[in-house]
Design a protein that fits this description.
This protein has 19 helices and 11 strands. It is of the alpha/beta class and about 450 residues long. Strands 4-5-6-7-8-9-10-11 form an 8-stranded parallel barrel, surrounded by 6 helices. Strands 1-2 form a two-stranded antiparallel ribbon. The longest helix is centred in the middle third of the chain and has 22 residues. It starts with a helix and ends in a 15-residue tail after the last helix. The model has no long low-confidence stretch (mean pLDDT about 90).
């Protein structure tokens, strides 16, 4: 049992966790994380994940809010775009790969994130995701703020239409869970509620900004003392029509009128021509995406100059051509969300055996056959659905031998380096250290680990 192996390496008291031998604890973190993630008893799993996170924090990997960096960006844009990375599978290994490049390239501005939908189909609750991200940082010897984000905490339109209060209450519960798990960056997506049948932009955006303000107020009410959680809003559902400054003003003016808290939004997600996961052609390949960088520039400048936000946020970008990413900082984009591209590297790697890939695909065909849409080719269905191949059979992925996982991580590291260079976050550690002072929030570890 991994817990038995670390009893001499840590001390637990009312003052929290103390690490007695940091180097040995780093070596033992792999087995402790594995035990925590795959413990079958719910309460014991939560306790183990809490212990994992507290050990990582004691070692200097501290969950933090990016709010103060974004406040700085709102006044003086530093010329980089922060990558926000959704890690859907092999999360501990992939987060370690990210951190290796972070350390090598002196990156400070980076975010690990997980969306509401991903929490479900990847089987990663906020506590697990936060613990794994912090553990990976500690394992690789990283000390400093670890920005972990609840991405697309979205009010689902069909659920909301049926019962607005129930859907809002669900989101409030998820926010409370995320904040308790130390996800100190949360993106609220109520853009699904925009009512285009209304005669004015203000009335169209009203359900969006009113619910966003309500959920933002909850966040401010429950955030720990000393922590200002970074809150993002969204005005246009990704995959719809491109956003424009008039929509932005209607949304932000409405939000600022309704919201009564001290600090409001730090950024704003907009639509500029992408879609989540890319547009899949019948043969399973991706169509070229034409992104409207003029929209991004206009929205970033307006949100920064008129409202003091960090700028516009771009979703659905990871499948863009590599030579497109340098444009994001050139047009002042504050943050870009990246997910499917990393998933594609894992699935399409030559180092993943055909037998294992087919095993995963057979599982997807069996479990999710009802999700295949009329007219969709097998290739289109598999590309759109294979994100769901990570969660229910997560242990099989984690149990892949190192001779398979290690070279896949090398492929991912190359992608992370390219992104960090193109988004200009290399050597961003200095400005992060100057603007962000992580607050160590000690959590009590449940006493049921024996």
């Amino acid at each position: 049992m991994a817990l038995d192996d670390i009893k001499e390496l840590i001390s637990i008291s009312d003052d929290g966790v103390k690490i007695n031998d940091v180097s040995k604890m780093r070596e033992r973190m792999d087995s402790l994380v594995y035990e925590a993630v795959f413990e079958e008893d719910d309460e014991k799993r939560k306790a183990l994940l809490m212990l994992v996170k507290e050990i990582a924090k004691a070692g200097g990997a501290i969950p933090a809010s990016i709010q103060t960096l974004y406040e700085h960006m709102g006044q003086d844009y530093p010329g980089f775009t922060v990558p926000a990375m959704n890690i859907r599978g092999l999360s501990y290994d992939v987060c370690r790969a990210v951190i290796r490049k972070v350390k090598e390239l002196n990156v400070g501005a980076f975010i690990f994130e997980i969306a509401r939908s991903e929490i479900g189909y990847t089987k990663q609750r906020p506590l697990e995701y936060g613990a794994v991200a912090c553990a990976a940082a500690f394992r690789e010897g990283y000390e400093g703020p670890v920005f972990i984000q609840g991405d697309h905490f979205q009010l689902v339109r069909k659920h909301y239409s049926k019962d607005p209060d129930a859907e809002t209450d669900y989101m409030k519960g998820l926010i409370k869970e995320a904040v308790e798990a130390e996800l100190y960056n949360i993106d609220i997506d109520a853009s699904t509620l925009v009512d285009l049948d209304q005669p004015t932009l203000e009335e169209q955006q009203r359900p969006n900004f009113e619910r966003t303000a309500e959920l933002s107020q909850l966040i401010r009410d429950i955030q720990p003392s000393g922590v200002d959680i970074s809150i993002g809003g969204e005005i246009g559902e990704i995959g719809g029509k491109n956003s424009d400054p008039e929509e932005m003003r209607a949304y932000l003016d409405g939000f600022n009128e309704v919201f009564k808290g001290d600090k409001g939004l730090s950024k704003l997600s907009v639509q500029s021509g992408t879609s989540h996961g890319g547009v899949v052609l019948p043969d399973g390949s991706l169509a070229e995406v034409s992104i409207d960088f003029d929209t991004l520039k206009e929205m970033s400048e307006a949100s920064r100059n008129e409202y003091g936000l960090s700028g516009a946020v771009q979703h659905g970008a990871s499948t863009l051509p590599d030579d497109a990413f340098h444009v994001f900082p050139e047009v002042g984009t504050s943050e870009v969300h990246l997910a499917t591209g990393f998933q594609n590297i894992i699935y399409d790697s030559k180092h993943l055996s055909e037998d294992f890939r087919n095993e995963v695909y057979d599982f997807i065909k069996s479990e999710f056959a009802s999700e295949k849409k009329e007219g969709q080719t097998d290739e289109q269905f598999m590309y759109k659905t294979r994100k769901k191949g990570f969660g229910q059979i997560k242990k099989k992925w984690w149990d892949l031998p190192s001779e398979v996982k290690d070279p896949i991580m090398k492929e991912l590291e190359a992608k992370f380096e390219l992104l960090f260079r193109e988004l200009k976050v290399i050597n961003s550690r200095k400005i992060v250290d100057e603007t962000v002072k992580p607050v160590l929030i000690k959590k009590e570890i449940p006493g049921n680990l024996v």
